[in-house]
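Here is the promised in-class demo. Please do not try to memorize the tokens; focus on the logic of going from shape to residues.
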């Protein structure tokens, strides 16, 4: 949060939490977990400042922001480490950081792999085919009575059952879920790192 405002980092797209990527040697690694761990480490071990853009996230109740950790743009650093893709409309410095990571075959650029955007689209397509409907986001009332939603690329999506008799429901989009008062289900597995584990790029050894 920035003050009382919920903010989301803009113009870069890290791997989805459950996503795995190819390391170029026939082995997959948990690129989503690694990206989350690197982002958390940057935020928790350095002084962070954020500038709100005034733009609203189209899906979630958040305002888009650009943040720096110890005067280093977080998005640029994530891209340079190969821990994200530059989003549409990203500034030139972000695109250059991604190009550098691609040239050095770092992180997600070690081998051809689906971008986070493509991964989400594939998960959405597969869920629609499985359930035979367009509205496949699962709105769930959990054991604590919280109204949370799970997208097809979320950690607990496959294990979540929609029991309409208990107040659960199918939702068509994240925007609709938020408008109806459902909160995003939190991802509860992010590996812990210390400063010595911060990779210059590539795979975190404990995430293969």
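The designed amino acids, position by position:
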């Amino acid at each position: 949060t920035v003050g009382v405002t919920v903010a989301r980092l803009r113009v870069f797209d890290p791997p989805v939490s459950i996503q795995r990527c190819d390391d170029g040697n026939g082995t997959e690694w948990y690129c989503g977990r690694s990206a989350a761990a690197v982002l958390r480490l940057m935020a928790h071990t350095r002084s962070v400042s954020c500038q709100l853009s005034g733009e609203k996230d189209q899906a979630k109740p958040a305002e888009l922001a650009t943040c720096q950790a110890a005067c280093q743009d977080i998005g640029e650093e994530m891209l340079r480490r190969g821990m994200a893709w530059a989003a549409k409309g990203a500034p030139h410095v972000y695109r250059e950081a991604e190009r550098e990571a691609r040239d050095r075959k770092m992180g997600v650029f070690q081998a051809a792999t689906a971008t986070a955007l493509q991964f989400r689209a594939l998960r959405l397509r597969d869920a629609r085919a499985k359930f035979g409907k367009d509205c496949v986001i699962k709105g769930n009332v959990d054991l604590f009575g919280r109204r949370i939603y799970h997208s097809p690329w979320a950690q607990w999506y496959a294990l979540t059952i929609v029991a309409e008799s208990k107040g659960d429901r199918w939702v068509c989009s994240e925007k609709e879920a938020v408008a109806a008062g459902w909160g995003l289900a939190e991802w509860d597995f992010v590996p812990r790192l210390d400063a010595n584990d911060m990779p210059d790029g590539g795979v975190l050894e404990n995430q293969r």
